[in-house]
Design brief:
The chain is an alpha+beta fold. Helix content is about 25%, strand content about 50%. A hairpin with a 2-residue loop joins strand 6 and strand 7.
Length: about 200
């Protein structure tokens, strides 16, 4: 009887050990399966900075045969790519704008109140990329003269080179179109940003 009792105890203990081990293995397998989707869905963010470029603007006066072209220094800013989406902002130093005429430049900067609002910022978010490139009209935001307004950016990005063109109306940003030497600048201005991003 004693031998039979001990044999039953050993058998029960052996079966219990198998059951516990199987349960632990199943739990571990479940944990691995549950963790896999989370790691698979993680995308790496790549941030690039502007290395070179320029900002240009074109203003047309009245009479319309007069055209004023200006150029500013390299914009600053970054663009971050996550998966196939790009988000970024370009900062434009308005104090660097020059038109080739010193007095006109001074008047322009007074009109823009550069001392109070020295920087204009173009922002864009979640722009779709195809094979790391983009081309077309994208929604963006321009911060100028203390105000933020939506703009339509004609943009192209490929091989580290980015170009953006858009139009603004000065009056929409609380800016009165300037007059100089009897010539008044039209409300609408064309702006082009060229940059190399790496």
């Amino acid at each position: 009887m004693n031998f039979e009792f001990k044999f039953k105890q050993a058998t029960i203990g052996f079966l219990a050990a198998i059951a516990i081990g199987s349960s632990r293995e199943a739990g571990a397998a479940t944990a691995v399966v549950a963790a896999t989707p989370a790691s698979a869905s993680t995308s790496t963010a790549t941030t690039m900075s502007i290395e070179s470029g320029k900002v240009e603007f074109l203003a047309v006066g009245r009479p319309s045969f007069l055209k004023v072209k200006g150029e500013g220094a390299v914009p600053s800013g970054q663009m971050t790519v996550v998966g196939d989406k790009a988000t970024g902002e370009f900062k434009i130093d308005l104090a660097t704008f020059k038109t080739g005429m010193e007095k006109r430049d001074e008047h322009m900067k007074e009109t823009l109140e550069v001392a109070k609002f020295p920087v204009a910022i173009v922002r864009f978010k979640d722009i779709a990329l195809t094979n790391g490139a983009a081309k077309g009209t994208i929604p963006a935001e321009l911060e100028l003269h203390g105000q933020k307004k939506p703009v339509s950016l004609e943009a192209e990005f490929k091989d580290g080179k980015a170009t953006g063109k858009f139009k603004i109306k000065l009056s929409e940003f609380g800016i009165v179109p300037p007059s100089f030497a009897g010539i008044t600048i039209k409300d609408e201005i064309d702006i082009t940003i060229d940059s190399v991003i790496k």
